[in-house]
Amino acid sequence: MTAVVGEDPMDATGPVEEVGTSVEAVFREERGRLLAALVRRFGDLDLAEEVASEAIEAALVHWPAGGVPSKPGAWLLTTARRKAVDRLRRDRAYAARLAVLQVEADRAAPAPAADAGEELPDERLQLFFTCAHPALPAEDRIALTLRCLAGRTTPEVARALLLPPATMAKRIVRAKKKIREARIPFRVPGADELPDRLPGVLQVIYSIYTEGYAASSGPGLLRVDVAEEAIRLARILRRLLPGEREVAGLLGLMLLTHARRAARIGPGGELVLLGDQDRALWDRPMIEEGQALVVTALTGGSPGPYGVQAAIAALHDEAPDWPATDWPQIVALYDVLLALAPSPVVALNRAVAVAMRDGPEAGLALLDELAGEQRLRGYHPYALARADLLRRLGRRDQAAAAYREALATAGTEPERAHLRRRLRSCE
């Protein structure tokens, strides 16, 4: 590898012209692992981020001269560690503040050796659980996961979550301060803790995906880069926890849903509902991968919520067209999901499935039973579902009122345009 100034040279490979692309690819792939290894070693997230960035800057300076190292992750880790040590030597007060944290980290597990030729250890699982710790507010967990594990800058995280950069910066600083002051351990929960902690990690990833696949606001319905980042995080978690069926379920759910992305938007950017989509546009290899994950998620014991949701998504993707959808089986799966994870939103989705199985009157009766649910107030899919069923029943005045209610709370312009079209059809 190319030498860092003042350090021993290491073997390097790769043509100079590929360095710019390679650095970006290496940073994207290795940043989470690098950050996790540094947090594990030094016990401070801010320091880890700073020296990781400095190591990347050093790579941009030195790799063009000698090529991309054969072990780029190890090169970055060694460089970052040395920069951290230099920083601590210069700042005695900072070193004293870290001393307690370092003692605690060393008690948890032995620190990895600083051999420049070693492989970069994959300690991202610890980082997943640190970023998604239940002591942090839910919105802080999402922001920190995007910042640390997805490698997004603070402005990028702000754009992903539709917040001003200054607000996001404060949120990330607050989360780091909470981790530091509460001494949240950087570790994987024990076997007895994992069932309680893993759902929080999965929820963070799914929340990121949901914002990408169905944006809460803005000019577009899809934010493909955000959705695909969530899928990448789920793939990492799947590699780290291959025996956890709910991890397979979550990844399967996202793949089976994301496979339809090209068909959800029309030529003019308009929303295309599932029943009207051109299924030839669906990503069949992604569907096949998702189907295999559903089998894993549902095999070997009682299913979890993500496994059941993935099974529902698989039934939609397997149907050759909208009329051929297996609505009885979908309703049965919603019954299971409602027992596993009862919520008004699950009940809403079940009511829509019942309407497809038994007719709009049956579905509308179930929706009316949910009218008093606080969580559904201002939730435009509820008003939209009522409006569509009322329209199918020929009750156009009531349908128009429900479309207006949905229009008042719809977040994206394609959704609002769809609702305006439906409203005009009733008026």
TrEMBL record:
Keyword Nucleotidyltransferase: no
InterPro entries per record: DUF6596, RNA_pol_sigma70_r2, RNA_pol_sigma70_r4_t2, RNA_pol_sigma_r2, RNA_pol_sigma_r3/r4-like, WH-like_DNA-bd_sf
Alphabetically ordered keywords of this record: Sigma factor, Transcription, Transcription regulation
One GO BP annotation of this record: DNA-templated transcription initiation
Name of the protein in its database record: RNA polymerase sigma-70 factor (ECF subfamily)
Domain DUF6596: 197-297
Domain spans labelled RNA polymerase sigma factor 70 region 4 type: 131-179
